[in-house]
Amino acid sequence: MKNLKYILAALATVAFFACKQDQYYLYNDIARLQFGPEPSRIYTTSYNLADTLKMYTFYYEDASIKQDTVFFDIYAIGGTKNTDRAFTLRQDQIANATNAISGTHFVPFNDPKVAKHYVIKAGTVHTRVPIIILRDPSLKTTTPKLKFSIVADGSFSLGEPSNIWRKLEFTDRLSQPSSWNAHFTQYYFGKYSVTKHAFLINTTGDKWDSIFIDEMYAGGNLIDYYRTVAKTALINYNAANPTAPLKDEFGDLIVFP
Asked: Rounded mean pLDDT of 31-38?
């Protein structure tokens, strides 16, 4: 009886891991396509969904800049081919949101300007997907959301469900950088607000965009240095304005952990 229990337990374990493998498409039966992190982080589990949402603002750019490109990484599963393989993207509408308008806020996915880049080249399994966003005047007052996903076609079936779509939010206002994430909030600079963001920019003269935040992380003690600078500047501001301490746009006091 004990042996039977052990056998059943072993079979259950095998079935569990088999299901996990099916869930993540860890096989090479057919060509599949899915998004993922940049190549240097492809085997780092914590970065699997790092690029699910990207945020962009034209706020820092000269008025002459009318468009920009945001890139997403995409991967073919199932090995390489000796021919180029085109793939197709589509926009998905988000309920109860300000959805980006094709041709107004971004270059349509079927426009030859971008569609020509939607190709996994022969002998490779990776490429960068360009999303060309347009600086429409409406971005001064709105933050459109662009959700897009891979379309199954003659070249590719779909990969892991959580990685067949990505989302981009963009504006022409000061907005929360992608790198101002939960970790950055909890351990370094607290809850994001536009007021706090502007205060940091005015205090240091730096952009405080995702590139700047990533550079702080990579700079050893640099992030602690800027945290100290921010705390000191806030103390000095509140001391100079004892009846009107710095508050954010929600009416909450600005604080740095």
From this structure: 92
pTM of the predicted model, to two decimals?
0.75
Question: Are residues 44 and 142 part of one domain?
Answer: yes
In a domain, 144, yes or no: yes
**Domain limits at 132?**
32-171
Phi, psi of 146 (to 5 degrees): -120, 105
Total domains, the chain: 2
Q: 199, 185, 193, 257: which is closest to 228 by C-alpha?
A: 257
* Residue of 113, 40, 126, 114 lying closest to 85 (CA atoms): 126
Q: Based on the fold, state whether residues 160 and 197 are members of the same structural domain.
A: no
The residue-averaged pLDDT of 189-216 equals 94
What are the residues whose beta carbons fall under 8 Å from the beta carbon of 88, sequence distance 6 or more? 109, 118, 150, 151, 153
Q: Which of 129, 108, 107 lies closest to 117 in space, CA to CA?
A: 129
Per-residue pLDDT, 117: 96
Backbone angles phi, psi at 88, to 5 degrees: -125, 140
27 within a domain of the structure (yes/no): no
183: Cβ–Cβ under 8 A, 6 or more apart, which residues? none
Cβ density class 55-83: b for 16+ within 10 Å, e for less:
bbbbbeeeeeeeeeebebbbbbbbeebee
242 phi/psi in degrees, rounded to 5: -60, -25
State in Å, rounded, how far the first CA of the chain is from the last one: 59
**How far does CA 165 lie from the centroid of its chain?**
11
Q: For residue range 143-175, what is the model confidence (pLDDT) as tens digits?
A: 999 999 999 998 999 999 999 999 999 999 998
Q: Is residue 94 part of a domain?
A: yes
